[in-house]
Amino acid sequence: MLLSFVMTDVHSNQCPKALDFEIKRLGDDKIESLCKYKGNVILVVNTASKCGFTPQYEGLEKLYSEKKDQGFVVLGFPSHDFYQEPAPEKDIKDFCNLTYDVKFPMFTKVNVRGEKAHPFYKNLATETNSSPKWNFWKYLINKEGEVVKSYSMVTSPKGDKLTSMIDKLLSE
User: Fold this and answer.
1) Is residue 137 part of a domain?
2) How far is CA 48 from CA 35, 109, 160, 161, in A?
3) Cβ atoms within 10 A of the Cβ of 131, count?
4) Is residue 151 packed enough to be buried (19+ CB in 10 Å), middle (13-18) or exposed (0-12)?
5) Rounded to two decimals, what is the model's pTM?
6) Residue 84 region, left (φ>0) first, then alpha (ψ -120 to 50), else beta?
7) Known catalytic residues?
8) Residue 151: which domain range?
9) What residues form DSSP beta bridges with 75?
10) What span, in angstroms and rounded, lies between the C-alpha atoms of 106 and 77?
């Protein structure tokens, strides 16, 4: 009986495939394991500073601040794949902080599509059969670390389509 309990406990601490990646924080040398976000509902977003959808930072930050105490987190990944994030990381970090007061975790600039995509993004695309078509493409991951759904850049972080699914996952 005890052995069964121990095995269950060890299994529950394993990192899910979707989160089994390490990546640097934006403008920092610190490498972070995405496994630390297991147990949260996660919204992954590829971002850019020079995009028509850049004002979504405001909605993403509002969503994060309103729901973080319920176990929700936004993870931002700047990308220049669509030629709208030419800035160095320090400038991206300053832009996010000064313009949109971004408090949700932001990570190093990565490729999000194609052969050069970061392995985290390659896995997200495989799990959803959907790679980012533009900046502010979104992926939703449940508390168990399973990729649930992807959303296009036109899906507003303030819209019911996204927020109702987040609330549903938070209540499970």
Assistant:
1) yes
2) 25, 9, 23, 22
3) 18
4) buried
5) 0.91
6) alpha
7) 51
8) 16-171
9) 44
10) 6
Does 53 map to a domain?
A: yes
**Residue 36 covered by a domain:** yes
Q: What is the pLDDT along the chain (172 residues), one digit of tens a residue?
A: 444 444 444 445 699 999 999 999 998 888 999 999 999 999 999 999 999 999 999 999 999 999 999 999 999 999 999 999 999 999 999 999 999 999 999 999 999 999 999 999 999 999 999 999 999 999 999 999 999 999 999 999 999 999 999 999 999 9
Is 92:62 a contact under the CB 8 Å cutoff?
no
Closest CA to 74 of 56, 93, 55: 56
**Could you identify the residue written with the tokens 């930072």?**
57
Count the domains in the chain: 1
Q: Residue 36 is encoded by which pair of tokens? A: 């630390």
Structure tokens given for 100: 């949109």
Please give the structure tokens belonging to residue 9.
């406990």
In sequence order, the β-bridge partners of residue 42 are 73, 141
Looking at the domain assignment, is residue 93 inside a domain? yes
Q: Which residue has the tokens 């949260």?
A: 40
Cα distances (Å, whole numbers) of residue 133 to 47, 57, 128: 12, 18, 13
- Residue 13 in tokens: 């601490």
Judge whether 39 and 12 are in contact, CB under 8 Å: no
